[in-house]
């Protein structure tokens, strides 16, 4: 049972998160955005978001093989170089350690994405991290 229904108890805050979600949906290709959401949710262990984004990707025609690869430490060769760069940035932003996001990861992503697109990626990654934290903290059920 969820601990708290944030949509009822914190409407204004949730509206702000929904606003950020709406923005990121218009800025990134849908499939890439969903890959980022699923990868982040897998890293964070948010069961609600894992179920939702896995289903969204399946409905969009994503293969089970690629979905399963997202569960690995290194998603691997099933993803094109642009996707791999975005997933590496996703990992680095989600797992922020003492060094933050390395120059190697940032520069690799910069080979495929403009400065504007990099900002959009960071916002998309940050947004799903917010959703994961809300889902996990409140024990949102899938």
UniProtKB/TrEMBL annotation:
Residue ranges the record marks as coiled coil: none
- Annotated membrane-spanning segments are none
Locate the Carboxymuconolactone decarboxylase-like domain: which residues? 20-91
Q: Which domain of life is it from?
A: Bacteria
The protein's GO terms of the molecular function aspect are:
peroxiredoxin activity
What InterPro entries does this protein map onto? Answer: AhpD-like, AhpD_core, CMD-like
- Name of protein: Carboxymuconolactone decarboxylase family protein
Give the classification, highest ranks.
Bacteria, Bacillati, Actinomycetota, Actinomycetes, Micrococcales
